[in-house]
Amino acid sequence: MKEIAPNIWADIINAISDQDTFVGKIFGKVEEKSGRSRYQTAKLLAFVIVAFLIFSTSAEVLCNLICFCYPAVKTIMEIEVKEKINFNQWMFYWVVFGLFTISDFFAHIIGDIFPFYWLLKFIFFLWLFMPSCRGAEKLYEKLVKHCYNRQ
Length: 151
Known about the structure:
The chain is mostly helical. It has helices spanning about 5-15, 20-35, 40-55, 60-80, 85-105, 105-115, 115-130, 135-150.
């Protein structure tokens, strides 16, 4: 469990360092224009996202946007490949995302009682979709597959 945060950070570093990806190219341009390293920019962006998720009244939009966009791209990429190595990971991710979308109807009530709801949801979804964690697949293996095989 304690290796989750370093693994997520390593995934982020890999993404911003890869000049062949959209994210890597954006961070490269920011590095070029600002004179700050892409790693400093990533840390600043992470701080801003965390602050926004804790203090902003629009935290729901940011959380759901991030939790939708990256997984949507990865799911489309998975659909396009012949070998469906990550199929279970992404299909179960969308099941969990859908369940949370329904429960978010009550998020304003939860947020009043527990102000860190959007931050914790964001961290949970990072765990679900980051390549080094593959939380959705782990959740499927531990809960759904285990319960389904018992019947």
